[in-house]
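Q: Hi! First time doing this. I have a protein sequence and I read that you can turn it into a structure. Is that right? Here it is:
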Amino acid sequence: MSKVQKSNEEWRAQLSPEAYSVCREHGTEAPFSGKYNENKADGIYKCVCCGTPLFESDTKFDSGTGWPSYFESIENAVTEIKDARLGMMRVEVLCSTCDAHLGHVFPDGPEPTGQRYCINSVCLAFEEE
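A: Yes, that's right. Below is the predicted 3D structure, encoded as structure tokens:
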């Protein structure tokens, strides 16, 4: 799949102010405020910017952090890069198709992967099965 590239003006026109802040400016939403934190329905979580499928509902778990958490992404859907912006080393998660900031991944998740993809709800669109 080819990269989706848009100007800042095009992203602003497409996204809500909060989604633009998080996805395009690497912000974060407040914990326990996102609409998908408590979602238990079956389906696919997609990138709100470009529609790329990112996470399947059967990989979602309650991490108690206040953000939707997944132990695995869909293959090749996300890119992981080192992030030292806040004076600590973390691993940022981006949409592989449009480079939207989604959240971070931590090595304290459940089996089978041991990963916790901590993702902002505002970055996601949910397609129920």
